[in-house]
Each structure stands twice: as structure tokens, then as C-alpha cells.
Amino acid sequence: MTNSSWQLKLEKLFRLQGEFITRRPWVTLLFSLVCIGIATAEVPNIKFDGSVKGFLSADHPAVVSIDENAKHFGITDMIIVAVESENIFTPENLEKLQQLHNALLEEVKHVERVDSILNARTIRGEQDELLVEEFLNPIPSSQAELDVKRKQAIEHPLYQNLVISKDARLTTLLIKSSFKPNQAGIDKALTKICEDITAVVKRFQQDDFRILIGGTPSLSNSLRATMKREMPRFMGATLVGIAIFLFIMFRRTSGVLMPTVTLGFSVLCTLGMISWSGQPLQMPTMILPSFLVAVGVGDSVHLLAYFYRRFDETNDKSEAVVYALHHTGLPMLLTTLTTAAGLLSFAGAPILPVSNLGVFSALGIIVAFLLTVVLLPALICLFPLKSRTRQALAYKHGGVTRALRFFSTFAIQRAPWITAF
After folding, report:
1. Where are the beta strands (DSSP E) in 165-285?
2. Residue 279 CB contacts under 8 Å (≥ 6 apart), including other chains
3. Quick check: bond before 181 cis, omega within 30?
4. Are 118 and 97 in contact (CB under 8 A)?
5. Helix (H, G, I), strand (E, B) or coil at 121
6. Which of 177, 253, 175, 264 is nearest to 211 (CA)?
7. Dist. CA 37–CA 39, nearest whole Å
8. CA distances from 318 to 13, 158, 261, 293, 314 (A)
9. Contact at 8 Å (CB) between 320 and 311?
10. Which of 160, 296, 344, 417 could pair with 368 as two cysteines, CB 3.0-4.6 Å apart?
């Protein structure tokens, strides 16, 4: 089979597809919507993962080791509440710290233990006895006694930079949850416990008693919240920017609405495939919707540019759809396949979200192409459109056309010089 023969066969196939869609646009639309509905059914259940462990695959040696340790020792990642003040060891600050300690332990569900300077243990020998006591039980009432305790705390090797800073301006409360490793719904449960801790902390927050929340669970929860908040914003900004560009380019409402609908469904289908596969959205993959919109709009622009030009010349919508698919189908297919192949090169990356980004962005580009050559022509057939004779003249004699002709003629006539430089 020669090169020209397979090209002609594919172009004929796209032309036949265009003829079918123009004859049965409602059938095509219904078929597209059914496929989109199946693909997007799991979008509401998509997961967000802000954990560091999620950057590695489940069979990675480091992840296997972490899971094995969790089976024996439980969840070791603690939520850290840090309290900063000029001097922690004052009666007023220790009283606030005691109230905060008790509130976290009593008011926040699923808290197994809270460790702080208040219940830190000290071990000492006295004659032939080994005494285990709580370091601040009871809490001294005089500042002189507290100054002694302050000196002991910052010099104690087990307390220093763990429960108290060297200058005694910052102390920590380490919160351990009662959740089991691999417990069902652990992400939602950790999100709830972080929200409850934040609510308790807000009550005690003061200018001279500054409280911060940290730790791996808190960081993961913050990253999940950021992804859920920022991803729609980025995608919305991208769609607005592209809509403005489309309107400037086509000067038609249909030239904005139809590609936007096609791109929106492309993104939703891709998110649905991610959810169906059981993979979560992570920080690197949150760019996927905006990326798909930015890359996928090229096919819609290509098809609509050919369609509008032919439609304005002939005033025959069906013929213009067939003409556009016949002339743009093959170039769009080839650019889609080459782009997808390039993106799939990331599939072998050891970092899981990078690998997922390569796989699902490639699938998303293919979905965008399929919807462009199936759904978009059906929308064109069903959308009320009017041809513009003046626009057809602009295509032939407009400034853009003249500029493109000049540059193409210049490149052809001076090909050797351009190639040399």
C-alpha cells in the first residue's frame, strides 16, 4: 500500500463519517452523550491525594516498608500543634497550654493520645529506686520554680527541640490518632480530625499565644483542600482565555460555545477515566484539565476554521461539515497520535503522578479528538447558523490571508537561504 493510498482511504473515511453525521445528527448526539455519561459516571467519586507516599507506586520498596511498619506500630504520622510565646514557662501560658491540651484530648474525636511538655515523663534515680514522674505535675505556682523547670527542660536531651525549643519560646503538642492503617475512608477521617483540631485551636489563638498546626496529616489535608479549590479556578481561567481567543478569531457565538462544550466534556471524560482506574488526583496532575483544554482546542479551531470558510462560501451547512471533516480529519488524527505518543513517554517515570500525567493526558488528547470529529459536527448541524458572504470575501482578500501568502511565497522563493540560516 502506497503512502497516497492509505491517506486517501482515511480521508474518504472521514468524508463518509461527515455524511453520516449530517444525515443523523440527533443519533450522533445521543450516542455521544451516552458514551460521555458512562465515562463521567465516576467523576463525583474522584480522589485527591496530597500525601508524600502517594508519589510512589504501591509496590515500591519504600512504600512496602512503610506499610509493613504501620501494621506493627500503627499510624506513626502525628499532627503537630506548635505554641509560640515570649516565654512558655509562665503561670498564664502554662494554664492556657493545659486548657488547650485537655480540649484537644476531650473534644476532638479519634484522638488516642496528646503528648506535650505537660505530660512529658522524667526518669530519675533516688537511692535504690527508679522514679518515673511527669515533668510538670503538679505545675509550679511561682515564677522562680518555673524558671528552674525551664532550665531543666531546655537542657534535657529528650525534650530539647522535640517538646520545647532551645529558647523556650516554642513548645509542641503531638497528637496521635486512633485510626488503623489502611482503614476504609481514612482520608475523610483525617480531614475531619484536622478540621476539628483547627476549630479548637482558633479558640485559643491570641497575639501573645500564637498557635500553628503542622505534621504530615495536616499537610496532606491542606494540599487536598488546595487542589479542590485551585483546580476549578485554573480550568475556569483557561476556558475564559480560550473563549476570548475564539470569539476574536471567529466573531460568532457558536464559535465559542461549541468548542467550549466539546472541551468541557473532554476534560470530564478524562477525569472519569482517572476515577474509574482508581488513581487519585495529585499536585502534579492537577494541571491536567487546564492542559487538556489548552492542547485540545487546536482540533476544534482547525475544524471550525475550515467549516466556517466553506459555509460562508456555499451557504450549505451539511456540505461544509463534510468538507471540513474530509480536509481536517487526517491532519488532526496524525497530530493527536504524535502528541499522545510523546506524552506516553512519561508513563515509565518512577514518580507515580508524573507517570499518571503522561498516561491520562495522552488519553485525554485522544478523547478530545474523538469528540471533535463526532460531537462537534453534530452540534454544528443542530446549532442555528447563518452564513456571512462578507466573511467569505475576507477569507480570500483579508489582511491575514495576504500576510500568510506573502510569508509563504517568501519562504518558497528563498528556501535555500532560510535553510542555511
Report:
1. 170-177, 210-214
2. 47, 356, 360
3. no
4. yes
5. strand
6. 175
7. 6
8. 16, 80, 21, 27, 10
9. yes
10. 296
Do residues 282 and 57 make contact, with C-beta atoms less than 8 angstroms apart? Answer: no
CB of 217 closer than 8 Å to CB of 194: yes
- CA dist 287 and 269 (Å) reads 15
Burial class (CB in 10 A: 0-12, 13-18, 19+), 249: middle
Q: What is the DSSP string of 52-117?
A: SGGGS-TTSHHHHHHHHHHHHH-----EEEEEE-S-S-SHHHHHHHHHHHHHHHHHSTTEEEEE-T
Only one residue has cell 535553510, namely 419
**Are the C-beta atoms of 136 and 203 separated by less than 8 Å?**
no
**Long-range contacts of range 344-352, CB-CB < 8 Å, 24 or more positions apart?**
350/56, 350/57, 350/60, 351/55, 351/56, 351/284, 352/54, 352/55, 352/56, 352/57, 352/282
Round the CA-based radius of gyration of the chain to a whole number and report it.
Answer: 32
